[in-house]
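User: Some background: our group keeps a shared notebook of sequences we're curious about, and every so often someone picks one and asks for a predicted structure to add to the entry. Today it's my turn. The entry only has the sequence so far, pasted here. Could you supply the structure so I can complete it?
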Amino acid sequence: MRFLCAGAAALLVTACATITTSDVRQRAPTATYQTSKPANAVAQCLAENLGKFGNPSIYSTSAGLAVAFNLEGSTILLIDIENGGTVIVRRTGIMAYKRETEACL
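Assistant: Of course. Here's the predicted structure to add to the notebook entry:
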């Protein structure tokens, strides 16, 4: 019984853990796209089109720009827009992002 309680407590702590942008960046890409549009325009469009997934934040990275969508303190969707036009999508769960993302490219 003691092991069962300890396991349940560990599960609760894990379920409540915050998922950081770095955590999401370590995941394998969900999708990869190419664009010829300026990174700023793509980032602004993604922030507007995908805002239903959480609060978007746009920031610079060493490779270009990133748009992170945060919900209740965790990053649930991360889109990197590299300087060469490669767009990399990483997510933490099941979400319909494809149509809104492709409209920005």
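Suggested note for the entry: Residues 2-15 form the longest helix (14 residues). DSSP finds four helices and five strands in the chain.
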